[in-house]
């Protein structure tokens, strides 16, 4: 990773900074972390895991049974087969998607990835670490799209029986259904709260811009920002107020962006912007404008709203995933000071 430029106090010793950066990066890409001591069957879970399912931290027994009890009954057998296959060595990875029961009784779609990290002297695994990620909105969109496709297939079967007599009617029905499927696909790439792109839509645009850089060499920059102390807003004023703040932030940022820019809600209170034909200097100038604009948002809050920013320029020899990791690391440094911009 290149040297990070930031204005402010030192970050602490190098080992401490590296450990914090790695821990923060893992928390950024997941919503909950679990750590299973295979010998004792003790399972330690991060505060994010409890928060994702609506539980108080450390309020559930720290064992494998707790995991079994939150898995949806319809998903349990499939998840156990995949998990056991990894434990037996017949599958190289453990990665599953399933529903978890929240404290209020509702179910949340999550992705679960894990791997062995420690072994005893005879090569037997003694520790496994994994991460859960909230994929509920994406999964619901995918299921809705599958349902649309199934309806389309079923309707086509019935219409094809009448094709000889009603060819034109069939064409019209197919066109209408294709438009519905296209609409469902577009909706699956939109964040339902803020109406900006979601992570899925942004990643598709990022890949396209990266390929454009490879072909033509046009500059492209990204900026990522996170609202400071947003948890305080949700905890003290309630989630409806937090949602109103996120909508207001999205509307304010959109006013400073071009039509060609891709603005997305990356997750929670974190946002990301793709800036085609833009270098790092121009992106920094935009980040500074946005930083000041967000301070002026009138969201009827008892405290001033601020945000921390990370800015980076796309490089031909760096793939999109590495670029996002570089931004994540820079944003972590910015969040340690709050209300500042870090260039990476």
UniProtKB/TrEMBL annotation:
GO MF annotations, alphabetized: diguanylate cyclase activity
Cellular compartment(s): Cell inner membrane
Residue ranges of domain GGDEF in the record: 218-344
Record-annotated membrane-spanning stretches: none
Classification via PROSITE patterns: GGDEF, PAC, PAS
Catalytic activity: 2 GTP = 3',3'-c-di-GMP + 2 diphosphate
Coiled-coil regions listed in the entry: 138-165
GO terms for cellular component: plasma membrane
Residues in PAC domain copies: 94-147
GO biological process: cell adhesion involved in single-species biofilm formation; negative regulation of bacterial-type flagellum-dependent cell motility
Keywords (A to Z) from UniProt: Coiled coil
Domain PAS: start-end pairs: 18-90
InterPro entries named among the record's database cross-references: Diguanylate_Cyclase, GGDEF_dom, Nucleotide_cyclase, PAC, PAS, PAS-assoc_C, PAS-like_dom_sf, PAS_fold_3
E.C. number: 2.7.7.65
Top-rank taxon: Bacteria
Cofactors required: Mg(2+)
Protein name (Swiss-Prot/TrEMBL): diguanylate cyclase
UniProt source species: Azotobacter chroococcum NCIMB 8003
């Amino acid at each position: 990773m290149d040297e990070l430029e930031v204005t402010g106090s030192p970050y602490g010793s190098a080992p401490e900074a590296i450990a914090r950066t790695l821990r923060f990066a893992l928390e950024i890409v997941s919503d909950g972390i679990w750590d299973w001591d295979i010998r004792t069957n003790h399972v330690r879970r991060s505060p994010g895991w409890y928060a994702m399912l609506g539980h108080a931290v450390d309020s559930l027994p720290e064992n494998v049974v707790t995991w079994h009890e939150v898995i949806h009954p319809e998903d349990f057998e499939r998840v156990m087969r995949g998990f056991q296959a990894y434990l037996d060595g017949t599958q190289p990875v453990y990665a599953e998607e399933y529903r978890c029961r929240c404290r209020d009784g509702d179910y949340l779609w999550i992705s679960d990835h894990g791997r062995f990290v420690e072994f005893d002297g005879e090569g037997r695994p003694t520790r496994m670490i994994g991460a859960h990620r909230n994929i509920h909105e994406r999964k619901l969109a995918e299921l809705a799209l599958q349902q649309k496709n199934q309806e389309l297939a079923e309707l086509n079967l019935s219409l094809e029986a009448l094709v000889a007599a009603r060819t034109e009617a069939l064409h019209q029905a197919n066109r209408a259904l294709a438009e519905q499927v296209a609409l469902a696909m577009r909706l699956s790439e939109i964040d339902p709260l803020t109406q900006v792109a979601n992570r899925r839509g942004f990643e598709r645009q990022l890949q396209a811009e990266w390929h454009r850089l490879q072909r033509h060499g046009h500059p492209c920059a990204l900026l990522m920002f996170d609202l400071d102390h947003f948890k305080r807003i949700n905890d003290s004023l309630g989630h409806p107020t937090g949602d109103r703040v996120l909508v207001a932030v999205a509307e304010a940022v959109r006013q400073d962006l071009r039509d060609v820019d891709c603005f997305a809600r990356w997750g929670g209170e974190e946002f990301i912007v793709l800036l085609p034909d833009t270098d790092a200097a121009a992106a920094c100038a935009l980040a500074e404008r946005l930083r000041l604009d967000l301070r002026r948002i009138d969201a009827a809050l008892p405290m001033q709203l601020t945000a921390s920013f990370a800015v980076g320029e796309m490089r031909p020899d760096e793939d999109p995933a590495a670029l996002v990791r570089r931004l994540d690391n820079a944003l972590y440094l910015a969040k340690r000071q709050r209300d500042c911009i870090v260039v990476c």
